[in-house]
Every structure is written in structure tokens, then in C-alpha cells.
Amino acid sequence: MSFISTLRSGKFIITAEISPPKGTDTSRLNRDADLLKGKVDAINVTDNQRAVMRMSPLAACGLIQGKGIETIMHITCRDRNRLALQSDLLGANAIGLRNVLVMSGDHPVKGDHEGAKPVYDVDSIQLLGILRKLNEGFDLADNELVGRTNLCVGAVTNTELNEAGLIKFKKKIQMGASFFQTQAVFDVKSFSGFMEKVNGIRSKNIKIIAGIIPLKSQRSAQFLNKVPGIKIPEDIVREMKDSKDPEAQGMEIAVQIIEEIRPLCDGIHIMPVGNHENTKTILEMADLL
Amino acid sequence: MIISRLKEFDEILQLLTEKNIFVIGCGKCAKKQHTGGEPEVIDLKDKLKAAGKNITGWTVLSSACSINSWDDVLAQNPAIKISGALLVMSCGGGVSVISRYAGMSVYPALDTESLGGVCCNEIVTQLCGMCGDCTIWQYGGICPITQCSKGLLNGPCGGAVEGKCEVDERLCAWDKIFERLKELGKLQNLEMIHGPKDHTKKFRGKKV
After folding, report:
1. B55 FRET partner, CA 20 to 30 A, in A6, A160, A205, B97?
2. Domains in chain B, please, with CATH?
3. Taking the CA of residue A141 as centre, how many other CA atoms within 13 Å lie in the half-sphere pointing to its CB?
4. pTM, 2 dp
């Protein structure tokens, strides 16, 4: 089933995230994709995430899609102006990609090419507008396309939104986002509050897919706590600290969060720190396979 | 006001391949910010002397970017004629004007940072992106092009942590815009969908 049909089917959605390699060796990318094949509805492929230069997600998605696995290509506004964004989107469509996830993108100073020019020629709202036009058969300058795109478009959100953030969330829906993938959820109570807020705004066919990061160690918890949009409650950090087998503990915590948020949202998005060795087990433990 | 900062002394020294140097300060923005007024010109000139340069003279123009004529400057500062190069303590605008008319090597002593302002001795930086298409009123008078590190026009990214921008210590511009619009009773402005900027306006003016 295509990802867009899955979105419409009402099934609980499962996606997982892969980062393209830093280099040309695709063996780990292939291994992760093989581990996920048949277990998830689509694989997200990141776009120079945290502003660290890696292989283009367009190429990596092409490789994964070649295995018969549907992908969601991330596309940030950081590195390309409106011409480059549109031409990549046409290319993505031409090689058979069907889903994209739009975001502003972490600022270059956060990454490994600090001195890079931050582009941000358009922002995520405007990029959603571009995608709407491309899907209608026109480019941003209103030129008619020879062959329109057919892309299912998603956006991202933090789960703790202030009023300005909530207004932007609403704008993303207005501009055609049909699903949202969230920053990692650790605090179920706060996530529940977020869902209450967005349920007042979205219609049921706008899907919310909650981010899940299985913790690996107390250190990974402390590191993630500094990432924008992530807040790990103290009791989880303590559980990780006290555990004799932190990796297993992290998986159990992830499963518990999945079980608690399952009735609240439309799906989960697994973003492990490192590889997907444990993703299948987590999905089995959560009764999702 | 144009915001500028003094280059590191070693960098300035490396720029100056000529021995005979005339130093020019600026009596407007650089003076106000203490980057190119009389005390700073004298200080730099003394350091250069100590480093072995021959300082032929110095002056502080009333405004480096706005001179009556180069002949006027020369008439008041004849030592320029016996100098190998000019070292200008002004923003890039002043350095450009002087470079254009002086017909000799001109070096900048300052780095130009942004267009800002000053009130009650508080210097405020990055107030205007000079985009050629001002829509600042829609944002409560806070320009998102310069105040938001990503120049986002439609609301905050998800990068702020406890109100601080992901880039540096600055507060998230969108929190400020939100608060200002709230004070003005114009929060509905945040609901506007802003299209991509037309960057031709920066260079060509408005389309007719």
C-alpha cells in the first residue's frame, strides 16, 4: 500500500528515519533499509540534518525506493534557493518518490560547515506553497510544467508550541500539509496537551505522527535534553541512570510511550540514535508487528 | 546607523603593505559607536607607529560616506598626497566612497555588520535587512529578515530553546514579534501568509 493510501486508510502509521551516509559508502544505509523493509509504512530520509553535510536525500531515497520501500524525503529551506528546491522536487517525482517532509532546517552554525551561507530564500510555509503549485502543474513563477508532480506533503512540529508556534502549525495545514511528524515525545502528559490543542485546529485527515527516540544511555538522554523541542522528564533520565542494561531500558521506555500515546495520535515515527538494529523488536514489543 | 566593529590589530597590520599611512575616521556612526571617532583614530595611529608604520597624518571626516569632494579632503589634509595608502575607520559605505575618489590604495579598519540604531546610548544592531520592500509594520516594527537568524517571514522555526535562538544568545525574534503585536492588539497579523520575497526589489526598485 502506498504511504498516501496508508494515511487515508486509518491504519496506525509507522515510519522510521534513516540518515544518508557521510561519504559514498551506502552499506549501512542499505542495511538499515533492509532491516526496516516490511516493518514500516515508509522510511524518512534526512536532509543534512543538524546542518551536518551528508549524501543528498534525493539520491538516498532513490536507492531505498529501488528496494521496493516507500520513502519520505526531507527537504529543508537551508541549503537551496527556490530554483534548486523546485528542480530537486521535479527530480524526486521523476525517480518515483511520492512523499516529502518540509522544514526550515537547522541553521548552518549548528553543523560542520559553520561558515556556510544560510539560504532560507523561502520558509517552510512558502515551500509548502511551492509544492501545492508544483502538484497543480505550475512552478512558483506561474510557468506551466510539462508534467506536474504528485507529491504527498508533510511538515514537522514540536510538541510544545507557544501561541506563535500554534499559529504557524495552522498555516502549515492551510498551505497543504497532510501529515505532521513531531519532535521526539518523552512526556506523555505534555504530548496529550499538544494533541488537545491541535485537535482543535486539524481535521481528522491531517495525521499526527509522533516522534519516538529509543534512548541508549543516560548520556544520550542528557544530550537529547539539549536538543530544541525535546524535553525528557527527570524520572526517565533517572531510570536510564539506574538501569544495568540502559539499551534495553531505553527500548522499554519507548514501548511504554508508544502504548500510552497510541490512542491519542495517528502513528509513530522511530528515530533511533544510531542504527535500526532494535526497531523491529520495539515494534514487536509494542504489538505493532 | 551603520553598525561596525574594529578589526583585530594584527589583521589591520597585515593589510597594510605600504609604509606611509594616513588614517581617516568618521564623525557619524563610527564615532557614536566608538569604532572610528577621534579617540579611536589616535589609538590606532599610535599602535601602528609602535609597530613600525610611518603615520603621515590623520583626520576625522564629518561623515566618511558623504563628502563634498575629494579635492576638499585633500585641501584640508595635504599629507594624504605623500601617503602610500589610506586606512579608513568607517563602515563599508565610507570606505567605498573614499576608494572611489581617492585614486590610491584604501584599506578598511572596520568590519561592517548591520544597519542598526541608537537611543539613550543603547546601540541596537541588525534592525533592517535593506530588502527594498519594507513590510515591517506587519511584524509590529520588528524586522524578521534580520532579527530572525533564518529570516523567516511566517512564524518561528522549532529551534528556540527557552526563548533563545538556536544560533546565539539572542532572544527568538518571533517571541518579540508576538509580544509587540499583542501589545498593539494586532495578533491577527501573525495569521497572514507571506509569499516569498521578490529580491529584484533590492536591486531594481519596485516593478511598474
Report:
1. B97
2. 2-114 (3.40.50.2300), 129-203 (no CATH)
3. 5
4. 0.95
